[in-house]
Amino acid sequence: MSVPATPRGAAVPPGQPRKAATAAWIGSALEYYDFFLYGSAAALIFPEVFFDESDPATATLLSLATFGVAYAARPIGALVLGHFGDKLGRKKIMVFTLMLMGLSTFLIGCLPTRAQAGTLAPVLLVLCRVLQGISAAGEQASANSMTLEHAPPGRRGFFTSFTLSGTQGGQLLATLVFIPVAALPEEQLLSWGWRVPFWLSVGVAVVGYVIRRNLDETPAFAQQAAEQGVVKLPLAVLLREHWADVLRVIAGALIASVSTIFTVWALAYATSDAVGMSRTAMLWVGALANVVALAAIPLWATLSDRIGRRPVFLIGAAGSAATMFLYLWAISTGSYPLTFLTGVLCFGVVYSAANGVWPAFYGEMFTTRVRLSGVAIGTQIGFAAAGFAVTFAARIAGPGGDDWSAVALFTAALCAPPVIAALSARETHTVPTEALGERVAPRAVRTEKVTA
Q1: Model's pTM, two decimal places?
Q2: What angle do CA 16, 21, 24 make, to 5 degrees?
Q3: pLDDT at residue 375, as a whole number
Q4: What pLDDT, on the 0 to 100 scale, is given for residue 45?
Q5: Are 237 and 369 spatial neighbours (Cβ–Cβ below 8 Å)?
Q6: Where is the Major facilitator superfamily (MFS) profile domain (predicted)?
Q7: Of 80, 75, 76, 42, which Cα lies nearest the Cα of 61?
């Protein structure tokens, strides 16, 4: 393998930070269009298509459990993709994850229903969902590493936030595509309509590949590979020198529970018989909240470049615990104005503080040689728990699925570990990129020398 050398201290070529941020934004948007599309379908469609032999409450529980399956697969994907990302580079992983996500999502749209194939249908659905989880495990970590290592001094928060802005953009796109589909007559929706958004993933994969294939490898990775060689076993170095930071990232990543509860459980609750709100209206709540998040994320990230990562992350984590109560209460009243207002406040504004700053916050905890592994493994273990938060929420909500206050308390409890993680972390927004994570004396590690 050959990686171009970058002299120590050399400036990042002009335009590369913006190019890397654009590639991260668009790639993440396309990747998470697929991922969040599944969430909408799991809440609204799959209970009747793949689990229709169960009673409605059980069918919803089983469907939401398949949503969590991808999160269980993500730590495995993080171990594998993180290892190769720190050995082969960020670019290769970014291209691979996008293609895998596009293929697995397209195949979901081709699956037979339970009425057509019996129990084989939900089994195939779970298999495709596992492939989605493996793909997502490497996507954000590789995009975060790419943008952080390309970013100019003093602006790492802003540039890394493009990855999460892209994620929100993908969620917005998935919601907008699903709105007209959800409005179809019931017979058409359940027979062929739900498949169309999944088939569009072919275009997603093609566009993403064209964008990412010409992206340059980061100067930090090229320099480290050329001068020191890549670490032969990134995981061993990570767990020896950065184990405490990995634990912090795992705890911090539980903040994603706010997203999964908002996106999936709250949608299922609002449209259930207990509340009876319109599917289309609730999808618009998510769409509007994501529009606001697209503006809020870079603003919060820019603020973190000035005052630090920790205070901004804490605002998001603690604030999300409080505003989730307001949002679920508003749904319980059946009031559309209150639901729209609190939904935008919770997810679009407050949650965006933590969501926009964590790419820089987590990435700055690690050195270049293990950054992708550290972020991937730490986040995906935390995200796995966040993914199954939806399933636990369905249980906690009781037989009728309407105990919203219990779910709000559960979500608030999941916001406590991120607060503790942030309070115990170092502030890194002013540390030079080349010095990030270097707080211990260098040790002899096995490396593979890379020739320029």
Answers
A1: 0.80
A2: 125
A3: 92
A4: 85
A5: yes
A6: 20-429
A7: 42
Residue in the structure block whose two tokens are 């201290």: 9
**Residue in 399, 310, 343, 319 with CA at minimum distance from that of residue 175:** 343
Tokens representing 331 are 């749904």
Angle between helices 309-333 and 351-363 (to 10 degrees): 150
pLDDT given at position 441: 39
Residues 6+ apart with CB under 8 A from 421: 247, 248, 249, 251, 252
Q: Please state, in angstroms and rounded to a whole number, the distance separating the CA atoms of residues 442 and 436.
A: 13
Q: Is 239 exposed, middle or buried (0-12, 13-18, 19+ CB in 10 A)?
A: middle
What is the C-alpha separation between 176 and 422, in angstroms, rounded? 34
Amino acid at 58: T
Do strands 230-231 and 447-448 pair parallel, antiparallel, or not at all (unpaired)?
antiparallel
**Residue 311 and residue 309: Cα distance in Å, rounded?**
6
Residues of the chain short of pLDDT 70, as ranges, are 1-15, 204, 228-229, 439-452
Cα(198)–Cα(101) distance, integer angstroms: 11
* pLDDT, position 342: 97
Instruction: Give phi and psi for 387, each to the nearest 5.
Output: -65, -40
Nearest to residue 413, comparing CAs of 258, 302, 264?
258
